[in-house]
Q: What sequence folds into this?
């Protein structure tokens, strides 16, 4: 009976995840960091990115995915995003990728580095911020009129709280441009080392310390991660849910709906049946 109930609960969580994903309408490539084709542009600037120079969103081709791409046309153009990754207590390795279109005499660059910052969930602008890792750069020269995917692994040292991503070009000479699309970062197979990552539930409750999150994390660690199906679900959840969580977090109404309709019923069921699955 215990085994059957575990399978039923896992299936319920999978169904809940699917139902939560669908209403948002957010297009994403997947990953802990996802900029879904830069579709959420605001005034020509990709949502969540800081702009230097004349970098902008462009809705004319070539575009890899969706209707928008990020474009830079000069050496002073840079797009920067700071992403809070919790508090990494054990060194872990992330997988990073991005799609790039390069035209002319220039080298396009996607740069990643990890930082320890004084305030979680904020940009690393305080005086105590420290870069902990070397900068990993994905780069390409002229891509012959097509987008190419670049990828690499990037180690995050213990103490990491933020990831910095920069989109830029180097060695500009004459008329040239670089476009970026579908930037993603995630933690394959190592998600259990980062206990705070209940993205949608955290966004719904507005805090990482809600008691309901403890129940969800315990079920994840004690049931889902101990079988192949559950592990695949958790991996898919961490790959797909961050942009949905960002979308939910911006609306008190959506947060209340997700809590009341999806997350709370699952938590209540897990609490009711905890004698059957808790170690």
A:
């Amino acid at each position: 009976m215990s085994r059957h109930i575990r399978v039923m609960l896992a299936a319920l969580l999978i169904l809940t995840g699917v139902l939560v994903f669908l209403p948002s309408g957010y297009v994403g490539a997947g990953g802990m960091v996802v900029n879904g084709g830069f579709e959420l542009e605001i005034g020509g600037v990709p949502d969540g990115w800081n702009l230097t120079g004349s970098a902008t969103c462009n809705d004319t081709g070539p575009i890899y995915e969706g209707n928008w791409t990020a474009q830079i046309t000069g050496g002073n153009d840079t797009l920067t995003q700071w992403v809070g990754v919790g508090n990494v207590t054990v060194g872990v390795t992330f997988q990073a990728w991005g799609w790039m279109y390069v035209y002319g005499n220039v080298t396009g660059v996607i740069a990643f580095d990890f930082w320890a910052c004084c305030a979680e969930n904020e940009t690393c602008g305080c005086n105590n911020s420290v870069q902990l890792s070397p900068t990993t750069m994905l780069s390409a020269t002229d891509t012959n009129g097509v987008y190419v995917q670049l990828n690499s692994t990037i180690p995050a040292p213990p103490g990491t709280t933020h990831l910095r991503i920069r989109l830029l070009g180097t060695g500009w000479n004459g008329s040239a441009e670089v476009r970026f699309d579908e930037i993603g970062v995630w933690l394959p197979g190592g998600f259990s080392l980062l206990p705070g990552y209940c993205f949608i539930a955290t966004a719904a409750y507005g805090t990482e310390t809600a008691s309901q999150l403890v129940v969800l994390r315990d079920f994840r660690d004690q049931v889902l991660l101990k079988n192949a199906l559950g592990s695949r679900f958790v991996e898919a959840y961490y790959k797909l849910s961050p942009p949905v969580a960002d979308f939910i977090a911006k609306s008190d109404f959506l947060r209340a709906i997700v809590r009341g309709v999806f997350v709370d019923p699952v938590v209540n069921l897990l609490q009711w049946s905890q004698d059957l699955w808790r170690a």
